[in-house]
Amino acid sequence: MNIGIDISQIIYQTGVSRYTEQLVKHLIKLDTQDKFFLFSGSLRQKQILTSFIKQLSSKRVGGVVTSLSPHLIDFFWNRLGILSPDKQFPDLDIFHTSNWAFPSTQAKLVTTIHDLTFLKFPDSHTSYLRAVHKRHLKKVKKHADAIIAVSQSTKKDLIDYGFDASKIKVVYEAASPIFKPQTNLTKIKAVKEKYNIKNKYILSVGTQEPRKNLHRLIKAFSLLTEQNPKLQLVIVGKFGWGDQIRPRSNVKLLGFVSDEDLALLYSAAKFFVYPSLYEGFGLPVLEAMACGCPVITSNTSSLPEVGGSVALYVNPKKTHDIFKAMQMLIKASPSKLKTIKQKSLDKAKQFSWHKTAKQTLKIYKTLC
Prior knowledge:
alpha/beta, Rossmann fold
């Protein structure tokens, strides 16, 4: 087979970026027979794409980096249906699209849908982004040969939106290999000093937008600190476009951090709290578990699929629920926490990028 994949999304350092990068790497490692053609475009960050393609380049792997920005790709592919990837890569059998743009091509079309946030929480997106995703979804619904949903929850959302259930295959994501227990105390001490974390801390990850529910988390944490005044809440994530949260003496907003630092922060945290109102998958929950970190998360959307019977679940709309769960873990005995950590590691091992790539490749082969 000649397999084309749009990798443009890797430049954004988001969950979709992680998915695209890891899927491509593991597909190429797993499939030693077929040829891969990596399509990408960016105006300002072409070097990231060029470097990624270069590290994978071989007789079986080629790629092209165009100067087409995401805005232009949306215009040409979603709106006009022109500039087919067939021109760069003739004889494609499969073209796997991103969650952004859907081209016209003679190849069989596969696309991954990560979530329907833009429909369920429209205020979490700009009007432009909502319009782009709606155009993309409309084309996918009409023309896709196969649709990969990253959870049963996302599959249900798509069916509720009128998609053909027979075209939808659930393929779970996995944590990047870098997310594993970090035991080097020198490195842990250094990362805490780097971010001025002086005490024991609870970790959370999320942009400052209403869906991530950080306001309720901070309110719940303030109740917790009445009896634990030295405890800190550390929040990692790019600053979003919704409600802005201001740092406090015991609440630290780190912004974006590297995966290397994040793995250390997961490993050293008392526990991880992720009270999101809605997720398509919930990769941070899996990353935390892969580092052996106890997890508190929401009992909604895809999150119970990821956390299984290991995570502690809360109603994310009830601040007191979040507080009680945190209080429970704060009071847990060392032996209880040790058991939770081991179960978290065991659960995380059920997800792997090898498995994701294998299931994705199987979908390709059913179409050809």
